[in-house]
Amino acid sequence: MSLPNLASLNIAPTPTGMPAFTRGAQQKLMRSLPVEIWQKIFEEANNDPNYWDTKCDETVKRCLVGENAPWAQERDAQGRTACGPDGWVYDQANEMRGSYRGGNGATNWAELQQWVQANPQELVAEVRPDGGTYPGWWTCPRAYFLTVCRASENIKRQGANFSLYSFIRAPGRSKPWMTALILEYLIKNPQRMVDVPPTDRDYAHFATIILLLAPWYLSYVPGTVTWPLGNVATFTGPHPSPLSHHDFQTLCKSGTWADGMMIRYVPGSLNADRTAQSAAPIPEYAEIAKHAVDRTPQALRFVPGSNAVDGGPQAGVRLPEYVEIAKIAVKKTPALLRFVPGAEIPVGPNGTAWTGPPQVANWVQTPPNGITDEEFREIAKEAVVAADAGQRAAVFRMVPQPFRAAVAAAVAAARAAAAAASAAASSST
């Protein structure tokens, strides 16, 4: 049986204003909880996204409640008690917050010690308000945990006066816990990702996560492209990108996974009118495009091979995977057949996209751009099958006259097969 959600369980020390018998009973109950329950409490609390905002000291409070409990005295395989200086409670909290990551990607206390040994210049104790010093953060998980909590509280106290731009460029940026604190701030303020220099050691780590929250940031990633003049692409930042190719394509995937339309910034994409191509597609472009149109079908307009807005020759070189990508898009949004080479599209009198009644439009068949008749019929079939009754006629109108009979027959066959499969499934139940 699964345990209930224990993340918000109130297990802080009992208020002294409570009647003595009530206070004693609650403390006795809390201290007698089995170790499995306490481990679950700590795990769920540390996974609570709001935990670090207001309850950084809850871990210490929980240890105060359970300090004399049997579970807190037991030692693990490494000889640690739960709440001692080397306690697994603090170590677990540090790990789940990601506080060790800045130590060359460390995930636990043992790995952080390797970074500590390689960076003795960083072993400077924090000065207390009274002029003394706190225990060295590098000495044990508890001291490290409390150091991180004080640093987090310092950011909170600054409120609107906090400057990530200055914070990330300060000498203290070299401390390993800074990675977690900066990421926590960015998650709450994704618009401030623009303050993080691409040369920062954790830039790719931060951007991969923030792009899921603010996909527009992809246009700021060095190596992506924008179209300031409409038909002339400009690379963002230095070119080639200072990022490794692995990091760059990972960021492109992250941004387009959140919003497929962000593929417009990936090198290789077309401009808004499909009259110019930005650059040669990166090797992962087809993979990115498949995810982009699956997420946002309208992203097909930016994929090399799609029709120009005026029905003229397509820009760039059609992707070898274009047919597969187009099928994904039209299955979700049938009207996107207008972007597929070979389709008939309405064009205005001055060669622009037609927005009036289709009955009086000038219909132009677009160049096939290397797509075979069979490939177009297959894409068109998928579009017409997916169209509802209100869309079907408009989508079918985009199919050139020579292909209509074949497409209609393929659609009928597909529907008959689907009906037969449905009937068979019903009869077997």
Question: How does this model look, in words?
Answer:
Helices cover 45% and strands 3% of the residues. The protein is an all-alpha fold and 429 residues long. Among the domains are: 1-74, no CATH class; 82-188, no CATH class; 338-421, no CATH class. The strands form two sheets. It has a two-stranded antiparallel ribbon.
What number is the mean pLDDT?
83
Number of helices: 17
What value does the Rg take, in angstroms?
Answer: 30 Å
How much beta, percentage-wise? under 5%
Q: Which runs of at least 5 residues are low in confidence (pLDDT < 50)?
A: 1-31
Q: Tell me the helix content.
A: 40-55%
Q: What's the order of the H and E elements?
A: HHHHHHHHHHHEEHHHEEHHH
The biggest sheet, with number of strands, parallel, antiparallel or mixed sense and barrel status, is: 2 strands, antiparallel
Total beta strands: 4
Apparent shape: elongated
Distance between the termini: 32 Å
Q: Assembly type of the shown chains?
A: single chain
